[in-house]
Amino acid sequence: MRLYYHPMSSNSRRVHLTALELGRPLELVLVDLSKGAQRSPDFLRKNPNGAVPVLEDDDFVLTESHAIMQHLADTTPGQTLLPTEPRARADVNRWLFWNAHHFQPAVSVLAWEHLIKPMLGQGAADPEAVARGTALVTRYGQVLDAHLAGKTWIAQDRLTLADLAIAPVLAVMAPAKLPLQGCTHLRAWLDRMQERQSWKATAA
Ligand SMILES: N[C@@H](CCC(=O)N[C@@H](CS)C(=O)NCC(=O)O)C(=O)O
Fold it and tell me: Which of 14, 36, 105, 183 has the most CB atoms less than 10 A away?
């Protein structure tokens, strides 16, 4: 299997983390986002959205990182990252959708203003965007923090795709100035994630 990715992409990282945790070998193909390789005609044929990650599993081409994680789990016999029992699976899925719909877009606002804009030389942070991003990350960060009180993992009392999907979003905690200092349960969980071999192996 081949993964088109970029090492600084949190969307790519959750797929790479999943493959490592599942013991699935991946051929990694760098898509140089800084040079616009995601908009080349060849790449747009794989993903018309012009974004990484893209998985090629023989003749099956799959986009969308959360869907790719699920496909990797579903095609790994004996895996425990994505339950098959419907309620347990739904419990994990709810966090994948929460991440894709609420948390990651909120963090992206601050990552763009504090980290990516300066890297690209696109000027100073916009105070209105920073205020909006700060409010959203605070709101959703507190949801996750409260959920993690007394828990080791996000879902099902074990490591699941929920943990592997959400942790990469928080890799920009300091440079994106995420307002999560008071979220002690969230931070303890992130520390546990950062201890994992898969996390260390995928550090940009
Ligand atoms: N919803 C997509 C988002 C993919 C995405 O936005 N990837 C970013 C990197 S983290 C990208 O390739 N951006 C390139 C661009 O927008 O030009 C997923 O989960 O896979």
Answer: 14
